[in-house]
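Structure representation.

___
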Amino acid sequence: MTQRLTKAVIPAAGLGTRFLPATKAMPKEMLPVVDKPAIQYVVEEAVASGLTDVLMITGRNKTALENHFDRVGELEARLQAKGDIERLAKVEHSTDLAEVHYVRQGDPLGLGHAVLRAQMHVGDQAFAVLLGDDIIDPRDPLLDRMIDVHERLDASVIALLEVDPAQAHLYGIATVEATDDPNDSDVVRVTGLVEKPAPGTAPSNFAVIGRYVLRPEIFGILANTPPGKGGEIQLTDALLELAHQPALGGVYGVVFRGRRYDTGDRLDYIKAIVQLAVERDDLGPELRPWLREFASRLD
């Protein structure tokens, strides 16, 4: 039996250059998606899967992240005095979500390096990595499924999404094979990985998206992984090495077919806001008819 996961690592040291000038003074993870910063959706997903110990890998100008998950006594007192219990509950919710810790990445040496910075905090336990660009709809629990597969197979597990082959060069791409269990139609064995292959050369259309459940041996591999694509230490390269070590469980993929909201670029960020807002009870009833009327005027 493997030990139940309790720790989540959230890399959040990126500069967010695609959203400049909005991210000149504000971390990209704090950009609002409707009325919550994107990073809060990710922490809520981790907590819903039982991961209550959260480590954020941060960089310069990221103090807003720490402030968001900390108490704001003056604001809470003012809301309490006004009797604004609904907003007070929302403010306290972000504070009480999880035990949140922070460590600086320092040099921007890639995702693999950011994960390696978590070694001292994680120790010899398996852990999850959640990237903030992908928001997974809570009605389609991906992380729960990945943790179940990890516990059953004692292996590292990555999330995969079938993408348009024309877009495969934008992702890390996995080569996969079926498992022997007919009950695991969404689970595949990963035999190869390549980071952002040149257009037309991708070995499949199974793209790696931002959820990982990793055995702690990944740290030793990352420590010896040379810089790869873009001169950065690529987590993909370390996972490829791990996939070739069956004694360490290998690497499996869970193919996700649920609702995913990509906040990684401006257009998809706008789409994510609209998709989430139309399904909310407080916004959807007025937003949906407005959207229909607005769309009818577009040519």
Q: What stands out?
A: DSSP finds eleven helices and 13 strands in the chain. The chain has two domains: 7-264, 265-299. Residues 265-299 form one domain. Residues 25 and 61 are 7 Å apart (CA to CA).
